[in-house]
Amino acid sequence: MAVFIGTFENKVDQKGRVSVPAVFRQTLAGLSFNGIVAFRSHRADAIEGCGMDFMEQMIARVSEIDLFSETHDDLATTIFSDSQQLPFDGTGRIMLPQGFRDHAGITDRAAFVGMGQLFQIWHPDALERHKAEARDRARSQRLTIPTGGGGAR
Amino acid sequence: MAVFIGTFENKVDQKGRVSVPAVFRQTLAGLSFNGIVAFRSHRADAIEGCGMDFMEQMIARVSEIDLFSETHDDLATTIFSDSQQLPFDGTGRIMLPQGFRDHAGITDRAAFVGMGQLFQIWHPDALERHKAEARDRARSQRLTIPTGGGGAR
DNA sequence: TTGACACCCATGAAATCCCATGATATCCCA
DNA sequence: TGGGATATCATGGGATTTCATGGGTGTCAA
Predict the structure, then answer these.
(1) Distance between CA A114 and CA B33 in Å, rounded?
(2) To probe the interface with A, which of B54, B67, B69 has the most A CB atoms within 10 Å?
(3) Which of B:14-53 have CB within 8 Å of A?
(4) In-domain check, residue B2
(5) Where does the SpoVT-AbrB domain start and stop, copy by copy (chains A, B) (predicted)?
(6) Which among B2, B99, B107 has a CA at the least distance from the CA of B55?
(7) CB spacing of A143 vs B68 below 8 angstroms
(8) Total domains present in chain B
(9) How confident is the model over A65-90, as pLDDT tens digits?
């Protein structure tokens, strides 16, 4: 099972390269594509990242939605058409395309955030704000983890 | 099932390393990640610890929520972004990151407290105070543990 | 020919490995 | 059941590796 946990801030060099955190690289190791799959988040000023295995899962899930429905098309267009395969170089870095950097407002620093089965890439300051907001919402709405069974376990 | 009970105080050396109690290590043995997963407790000045199996459960449950929904993102961000994987070295020690030490006020000693399926890491003195308070509350409110039968589960 | 990009090497800081030590707990046999 | 032999454990510190980062060079295509 893919596990992305933690927050890591790395530098973006003049060529637009960033090191993907070593722990993330390890969970991505051994997949059919040696790198990450990334696309613009449509909800936030961030880049979504995952491994090729997860992308395959998403394709499978989306294909369960009625083909030719508006939802299907919108999802497919937003996510799949925008996705890019970003291969690792010899030292575990990826090239963040300019379009992605623009979308997330990333210039010389990038923050990788584990989201469980996928991760996001943010401008470090924007991420801090987002984290605080997410925490507040989670608390005020008393969000809890769904349990597998009936009640508390 | 993971079981963490008891209290153990160990030293934090100059490199920031602490031995995880051997009994805890045994219940953590054989998981997909050889180490602990830790995050700041939002209720106390302590670090929460668990095994990767626990985190995988959390991920599985969060992933039951619609992907890219606000609820999913808020939960995932809140839970996973501030967690860290802390691997064991050859002798069963972990490196306590500075941020965690700051949060818990830990300098040269750390107390590991079993909490059932999780454990906590405290500054020994803070833990003593906390234990006394918890005992008092439990006594004055006559707290009970729900049984599996009639009531909550 | 001029970017964009893949590949290569170098570097310092930080994390990890490895070995040694003493203390404690456990085992085993009388 | 006592007590010595043996293993386990926590701890310390030096050596080694990993990691993030910087820059150079070659190659391909516009």
Answers:
(1) 16
(2) B67
(3) 32-33, 37, 52
(4) no
(5) 7-54, 83-126
(6) B2
(7) no
(8) 1
(9) 888 899 899 889 888 999 999 999 99
